Structures are given as structure tokens and as C-alpha cells.
Amino acid sequence: MSSSSLTLPASGQAAGRNRRLLEILGGASIAATYVYLVLAQPTDLTNGLSSGSTLLALSGFLLGAVLLIAGVLPTVPTSTLVLIPVALVLNIVLGQFIGSTLVPFYLDSVGTVLIAVLAGPAAGAATGALSGIVWSLFNPTVLPFAAGAALIGFLAGLAARYGLFRRFYLAPVAGFVTGIFAGVFSAPIAAFVYGGTSGIATGAVVSAFRAMGDSLLSAITKQALLSDPMDKAIVFSVVALLVYALPRRTTLQFPFIRRHRVLAGAKTS
Amino acid sequence: MLPDSPAGPGGLNPLTLLSAAVVIAVTTTAINSWAVSAAVLLLLATLLALNGLGRKVLPAAAVIMVPFWLSLLLTHGLFFHEGRTILWTAGPVRVTAEGLQFAAGMGLRTAVFVVVCLAFSFSVRPADLMALLTKYRFPPQLGFVLCSTLTIAPAVSGRARRIAQAQQSRGLVTGQGAGGRLRAVQQQAVPLVMALLHEAGSRADSLEARGFGGRGPRTSYREVPDSPAQRIIRWLAVAALAVFLMLWFGPGWFTPGGVR
Amino acid sequence: MRLSLETFYYPGEDRPTLQGIELDVGASECVLVAGGSGSGKSTLARILAGVLPGRHNGALTARFEVAGESLVFSGASSVNPRINPAVWNRHIAYVGQIPSAQLSTVAATVAEEIAFALENAGMEHGLMKQRVRTTASALGLTELLERKPSELSGGEQRRMIIASAAALNPATLVLDEPMAGLDADARRAVENVIGSLLDRGAGVVLLSPELGGAGRLAGRMLLLDGGKMVASGPRPAVLKSAWAARLPVIPDPLDAPDRAENILQPPCPTSSARTPAAALGGVVYRYGTERRRPFLPSRKRAKTPTQTVLDGVDLALGAGERVAIAGANGAGKTTLLRHLNGLARPESGTVRILDRDIAGQSVGNVSADVSYLFQDPQDQLFERTVAREVGYGLPELDPAAREAAIKEALRRCGLAELAGAHPYELPASAQRLVALATVLARRPAVLVMDEPTVATDRDGLDRLAEAISQESARGAAVALVTHDLDFAYRHCNRLVLLSGGRIVADGPFARVLERHFAGGEAFGVQAPAAWLRRREP
Ligand SMILES: Nc1ncnc2c1ncn2[C@@H]1O[C@H](COP(=O)(O)OP(=O)(O)O)[C@@H](O)[C@H]1O
Ligand SMILES: [Mg+2]
């Protein structure tokens, strides 16, 4: 303890290590579930789908997402924490709005990517996972994709960390690459949990691939690879435009932006 | 889950509702038969209708499930080339009994999941959830995010509306239909996010100045109804679920292509 | 509590935002920190609250004496103490400036909001219940305890937030502009709350651009200008130096010296025979008759019984007239204004602008003739520089004329040097001036303003007054809704009183005052102090 009760002692190390452990466990749980789904499930799921793997996918991803949240949230400073609800509302509103149109995109990760750019990969991942969980209160079908949303937030944070938001033309490229990962990641979830996609437009794309003779998993993966990279490229560009329009004072308030010079011209202070 | 949801039906604790929801959703998914799912769905619908929740839950579920079903029908009803029993073909389209059965199985099982989850969220108050999370020593930040998202949503939409009105008052004319709405969304996005981030900054100060996010233990003003009986029921339900899963999948359930 | 502050720098700034401030507050003592917009009041408040510099990374050189401990901050060095807000708020509590941002957003009732700081302090449940009850009854909030925080009126919300900060019984409370935007009743209620806090033995630091109102509770005051303390001491002495320094603080209407322009009534326009610039005829309006798209599909659509807001309003605004519209909260003032540019559509009755019925015209089209200044400037700032903001939505002109129009509007609002600044980085009063500039640049035939004086300092008020007289001289009809009849008395020539959705008085300003305000207050509106004083001798 420091001599004064009004001040904080230097930050505790033990608590930090426990949090790290939770984050790693969460990430490992998600990764292991994914590997199990892809590798250990060679049989085509249309020949009598194993409901065991559905439950496993659901619980593995959900557990991972919850561990991630529990590990990251307590370390997030209050100034970032208050942004997360705002981000979730943006995600949900845009996601619902786009989902109600006949566009084969989602645009449900604008808020997640925004947080990732302002506050880094860990906060981005937690926001993604929370987004899936909170949105599922209105639309339960998005629950299994919480882990995928966490991956998007994490990758967006990495992109920001390594300067891909300093130039406007780099943002959609980063988004495109993130989208490839996101598509490959979420396709097995859609296939094993729902046996398809939840939107009519995306469903039409899947059935087009099925008509050409693809297996269900590969049809869904191809659909995801058509939609996701484009979708994320759009989302990353939108977020880049948003953060460029923010007052410098607002952006410089975030240590992540100051430390890694996330935005061009933002001097470290 | 709405800020103005009624208290849990019959003074039930949210955890009791949650464990019931989990048990129902997991067993129907495990059994994975369209007939069982349909029966559970019917039962749930009647229960909810009797409870008065049906009027809210069922339309909300329909909004989600109808596009989902259509998508499944499109994918599996028309193109299911693994199917043997062909009912009708035309060009690349092949309607098979297996395809329809697959679509029905998936569609109904998901419907049970959706209805159960919505029933839970429609009967729980966010503030109760926050109090529970506090009671079980979850990080208060988690409760804050859950609760705050639901309470600021109307404020966000109000602000978006005011921004749109201010833009129109300065000469912005947006068209009707999806295109016009998309353009309006695009015009509003920057000012909306700017205003929200600004407000969030002040909120952080206000929360911090009232000691939120401190390291000591947190307590809760709100009391959530609970009883020893409910606690026992919850544990029993979870234990029963575990036993059921064990018996249903057997010891070899994790091997590829195991039972079912 | 005692603070001697040498300097404070925001990160990345090379000039100190605050400099040379000495503040001490004892038990039951109220200290007023007065200063114009951007003078550093909110910055000082956040330093007192312990949230600055915190993680914001500013450089503070200061010495605090709080609860018998002394904390020394020495610039940007890394050995500075880190304040623990969870303990700090037991000694110094803080209520910020933006009311909607002060809600915790996790409380379902007022009682829970008041308990928020107690919960975070880990107070035992029985004790907490009792503390909430005593705090609420001491501050007169008992009947609100079971209400929902988001459904309170502005004044009730302000009182609840102060109670929430006071629940831990801190020795000192820091209140940043607690009166901004409140009507007479709500101001009195908040003043009573502050009075009870002082009675309970708490010290209060009040930060405000207004010298009157709650400022009268202060025994001592401190004047801020450009971040520097220019005077401090007992209130009457400092009031005099405030006048001498001509700071942009807002005088107390009760003891302001009567300057000539305070009394001068602007002359009435001579031409009122022509067709009016804007006319409402028999307008009836009810809430709930418009269908609104639900925000989230599952959200319950509010199905409140429809309530008549405007009940047969006839009002004609002549070219060159300056009309003040006043009335209690909920009388329908804003709704009336919204009819003038089509944001609200009458259920029955007509709205004519320049002798043209606007039914069926979109708001965007009406905006060519009618400009609307909204109450909250942040709802109407969209762009990333002040100049682009003023140019937003200007009718198609050739680029040179457009540039000139923008320049001229900026000049009239005193914003010429700020053309490249981000609107959000300006102090509140300058933001209001930016919003005013966007309206002036359009050269409308009808100019309507909703509460233009709120959160505006004296410099801003002067610009606003000038703009009103210039616009009316140009031939525009100006209508403003305001609680501030002192301002309106000086700059408007006609007064319209609204009560319960009906116009209950309408006519030349002085005549309406004489007929209805013999008692000093009517229809929830307070008569201008300058007029009352003029009547006395
Ligand atoms: N985060 C910040 N970074 C840099 N400058 C700031 C910041 N916040 C406020 N300022 C500047 O500090 C000055 C004082 O602002 P403020 O304390 O808000 O004044 P007041 O409350 O009296 O209106 C203003 O010039 C303002 O632009
Ligand atoms: Mg201020």
C-alpha cells in the first residue's frame, strides 16, 4: 500500500497475470473448437448431422467468448468501457437494418472495428464477443457467431496497431484480409449449427453453389468468402472515415492511438 | 430484454429462467428430430400464450425465423444433391425428401432455440441481471455493458432522429425507399458517432467520479427475488441435463461420426 | 479542501489551460467560480473531481489538501500520485456539465441511481437503503424515488444527479453549471437542493458563467478569465471587479447596474400591413398521431394516450418583427416552432410561409425560406471544420459567392479566426455561435430559434443580440423561444405567451408585461428584472 489512502498503489501484477490467463484460455477454447470442427468432422454433415458437434461448437465458442470478456473487461479503462455500449448499439442497429434489406452483406461490425481502432485488439475482441451476446437478446441466432465477431475485433485492432489505418486506401485492404479470415472462421459455424445461413440474400448465394454441386460446407464457405471480405472492406473504410472525422482531442485521449500512432499525424505525446 | 420488462413471471429468479432455457434448448438440439422439436415448439407457444408473453415473443421470433426458413428452403429444398428420394426436378433444381427433412430438422430446432432465448430475454430486467452479476462477483464492467446498451439504445435513436431533422432543416432532402434511407444513414453516421463519443467521454468522468471500476467489492441496492426451492431446482436441472447428455451421446460421443 | 494550482496543460498543448488558482472551501461554505465559456471552469472542476489528469495524461502542477492529507503534483513527471477515485469521491464529489451524460445508465429507478456511488463503495445493503432514504428526504426527492431516471424532467434529473453525488456525504461537492437550460421552477428547486447541502454542512464549489441565481448562495467567489484567476474574495467586492474587467460572465439581473441599453426598447417595425412572412392558422397538434419506425424490432411501441400539445394556435409573424415566445415547460413552445419549418405537421389547420401553404413540402424544401436554430448545438454540428459546417446545405451558388457568404457569417459571429477549427473542440458558447452562423449564412426570410441564450456567455449573447437586430432590419421575421425574458425584453418587440397549447397573450412587449405581470410572474414565466426595477420608483 502507498502511504496515502487517496491514491492508488502501483498497478498489481498478480491480478494482471490472472487476466492474461483468462484471455489465453478463451482464445485457446475458441481455437480448439474450430480445429475440432474442421479436422475431426470429415463426414459430410448432410448425411445425418451430428448434434454432438453442434453442441460442442456452441459451448466451445461461447465459453471462449465469455472467458475472453471476463479477462479483458476489467482491464479496460472506464473511458473505453463507456464506448462499448455505444459500439454495440451501432452494430445492432446497422446489422438489423442491413439484414432487413436484400443486400448480401452484414455491416454488423462497425462498432466493433471502431473500438478496435481506438482501443486496441483486446478491447476489440471483447467488444466483438459482447456484441454477439447482447445482440442475441434480440436475435438469438447470432449467438454462435460471437467468437467470430471477437476474431474480427482482434484482427482490426492488429491492423490499427501496425498502421493500416494511417492511410485511407490501406483500410479496405486490411478489411478484405480480415474478411477472408472471418469467412473461413464463421462458415463451419453456420454449417454445423444452422445448416445454412439466416438471410435470404445469403441463402440464395449458398443455393447457387449447391446447384453447381458443392457440398454444403464448401458452398457456405464460398458464400462467406464472397460476402465477408467485401463486407469487412466496406466496414473498415467506414470506420476509417469516421475516425478521420473525429476531433483530434477525442482520438488523442486514447493511449492506444498515442502509443502506436494509429492515425497519421497523431504525434506521440 | 427491455428496460421496462416486467419482473420475472411469478417472481422467478432470472437464473432459474436461464437454466430452464438452457435445458430446453440443449435437449432439443441433442435429440435433433424434427418431430420432437415441433412438439416442444408447440408446447412452448401454448405456455407463452397462457403466460401473456406470447404476444411479444412469438412475433419477434417470427421476424427472425421466417427469412431463416426461407433461406433453408431455398438451400436444401431445391438443391440437395445428396438426397435419394426425388420428389420433383426441373433443370438443376431437385426437390428431395431428404432435403426437405433436413431443412425441417434444422429450421424447427433453431426455432426452439430462438423462442426459448427470446422468452428469457423478454422476461428479465437488465437491472436485475446487473444485480445478479454483482452478487456473484462478476466484474461490474460486464453488467454495465449489458445494462447500458439496452438503456442507451432509445437515446441513440433519439439523437439520430434529431440529427436527421437538423440536416433536413439545413436543406437536406432524402428520398423515400431503401436508397433514400441508406443515404440518410450515411449522412448521419459521422455526426452521430461524434456526438456519442463526446457524450461517452463525459459519462466516463461521471462514472469514475462516483467510484465505478474501483477495486473493492461492490454491493447492490436492488434485490432479486430468489428462494431455496429455486436454487435446488436450478441445480437439479443442470445435473439432470448433464446426466442426459452422458446417456444420450454415450462414452464415444466425441469420436468423429459418433452416435447420431 | 484546499487547492493551489500553478499550471495545468492538456496533452499536446503548449499553453497552460489553467494557471495560478487558489481555492479553498470550508464546511457549509459555497464558493462560486465564475467565468465565460472556455475560461477553464470545466477543466478546474474535473481536476477537483480527480479525473484530470488521471489517464488523460495532462501535466498538472498543484498541491491538494484533502481530508488532512496533502498531495503534490509536479508537472509531467512520472512520480505523480494517482488519485483513487473510489476513495476520493468520499471527500470530493463531482457533477459534470452535460446532464444526459451524468446518468449511470444502469439504474432502473431514481433510488438505484442515488445508490450508485454507495454500491461502488461496497456499502452494506441495509445501511445503503437507509442512506438513500435520508439523502432523498434531505434534498426533497422522496416522491421521485421509484421513477425511472430517463423519464424525469431536466430539473428533476439534475436534482437526482446531485443527490447521487451527495449520497456518500462528501465534505465538498463540485457542481459544473447545474442551472444551465432550466426554467424558473426547476432553477428554484435546484437552488433549494444546493441550499440543503449547505445546511447539512457540505462545502459547495459552483462553476457557472452566471453571477445570479444559485450564485447568490455564495459567500465568496473567484473569477476566471482565459484560465487565470483574475479576482477572488467576498462576493460583493468581486462583483465590482467583474464589471470593471468586462468579463463575459452573465450579470445577476437583480444587481446589475442599469446600463442605457438595458432599458431601451427596440423600436417596432413600421411595416406590418403586408402579408406576414409566416402564419399559423388554427393549428392543432397531438403527440402519438405520427407513426414512427420502431428502433429495434422488439421494442415495445410507446402507446401513450394522445395528448393535445397545440390547441388552435393562430400566429402571424410579420417581416422585420422580433417575437419572443415564452411559457412554462410543456406549454408547447418548441412544438409551435417546429411547425414553422415543417418538422411537425398540424393535425388540422394551416402553416403558410411567404403566403404559400407548406403542407406536402419536405422540410428540406421549406428550409430555403425558414432557418431553424436548435436548442442543442451538438445535434446540428456535422462537419469537421467550422467553415465547412457553415457551408453545409447552403443553396447552390457559384463558389465565390458561397465563400463570401461563409466568410460574412463567420465574421458576424466573431468566428473568423476559428474557421479551420473542429466544431467539437470549441467551448460551448462558441459552438452555439457556429450554429448561429450556419443559420445566418442562409439569409432566411423567417428565422426561428429554440432557447438561443442557454449555455451562451455574455460575448455570445451580444453577438446573438446583434444578429437578431440585423436580421430584422434586413426584413426577416425572427421568432425565439426563451425562458430568459431579460434577454428578450431588451431585444424583442413582441411577446407571445403560451399556456396549455393556447396563446394566452400576444402583443407589444411592454403592453403584455403590463397586463399580465403585475405580480412579477405569470403562466410559469418570470418578468424581466429590468422591467420590474423600472416600475419600482
Ligand atoms: N481535452 C482537451 N484538450 C485540449 N484542450 C481542451 C480540452 N478540453 C478543453 N480544452 C480547452 O480548455 C479551455 C477551457 O475549457 P473548459 O474547461 O471546458 O471551459 P469552460 O468550462 O469554462 O467553458 C478551452 O479553451 C478548451 O478549448
Ligand atoms: Mg464548462
- Bound small-molecule species: adenosine-5'-diphosphate, magnesium ion
Termini distance of chain C? 45 Å
Q: What is the CA-based Rg of chain B, rounded?
A: 24 Å
Uncertain spans of chain B = 1-5, 253-260
| Approximate strand percentage of chain B | under 5%
CATH level-four homologous superfamily name of the domain at 2-252 in chain C: P-loop containing nucleotide triphosphate hydrolases
Mean pLDDT across residues of chain C:
86
Q: How many DSSP H or I helices of chain C?
A: 17
**Average pLDDT for all residues of chain B:** 84
Distance between the termini of chain B: 35 Å
The largest contact between protein chains, plus residue counts on each side, is: A-B, 73 and 75 residues
Q: Helix proportion of residues of chain B, in percent?
A: over 70%
**Count of strand segments of chain B:** 2
Characteristics of this structure?
heterotrimer, A: 269 residues, mainly alpha, Arp2/3 complex 21 kDa subunit ARPC3, B: 260 residues, 2 domains, two-stranded antiparallel ribbon, 3% strand, disordered N terminus, disordered C terminus, binds adenosine-5'-diphosphate, binds magnesium ion
Structural summary, described in words:
The complex is a heterotrimer of chains A (269), B (260) and C (537). Chain A has 269 residues and is an all-alpha fold. Chain A contains 12 helices and no strands. Chain B has a two-stranded antiparallel ribbon. Chain B folds into 2 domains: 151 residues, no CATH class; 72 residues, no CATH class. The radius of gyration of chain B is 24 Å and the shape is flat. Chain B has 260 residues and is mainly alpha-helical. Chain B is 70% helix and 3% strand. The longest helix of chain B has 33 residues. In chain C, 31% of the residues lie in helices and 24% in strands. About 4% of the residues of chain C have low confidence. Chain C has a 6-stranded mixed β-sheet, sandwiched between helices. Chain C has a 6-stranded mixed β-sheet with strand order 16-17-18-13-19-20, with helices on both faces. In chain C, strands 2-1-4-5 form a 4-stranded antiparallel β-sheet, covered by helices on one side. The longest helix of chain C is centred in the C-terminal third of the chain and has 17 residues. The two termini of chain C are 45 Å apart. The chains are: A mainly alpha (269), B mainly alpha (260), C alpha/beta (537). Chains in contact: A-B, A-C, B-C. The complex binds adenosine-5'-diphosphate (ADP) and magnesium ion. Magnesium ion binds next to helix 1 of chain C.
